[in-house]
Amino acid sequence: xxxxxxxxxxxxxxxxxxPLEERISNNIxxxxxxxxxxWFTHVYHANEESPDELMVNLSAMxxxxxxSTQSLYWFELLSLIGELPRAGLVxxxxxxxxxxxxxxxxx
Length: 107
Fold this sequence. Notes:
Largest sheet: none
Low-confidence stretches: none
Helix content: 55-70%
C-alpha cells in the first residue's frame, strides 16, 4: 500500500482525501517510477546480443516476480501511475521470447 490508501476496494478515480495525485507525488519518487516502467527494457537490451543469457535472465526475473510479492508491488505501482497495460506488454514479450526458444522453460 505504497500510497497509504484507506481501502484497496476503491478504484483509483475514487480516491479523494487527499487526492490520488498528491499521494502519488508524495510516495512514488521519479526514480521508482522510472524503474517500474523501464526495468524490463534495460534487461532486454542489455542481453540482446546473447539470446541464451537473455533467456536465463528473463527466467530468473519471471520466477522472482511469480514467486514473491514483488509482482503485486509492481502491479500496484503501475496501476497508480496509470501504466498497468505495460505489465501485459512485458509478460507478452517474455512469452514470445520463450515461444521462439522451444527448449526454454520460463518457470
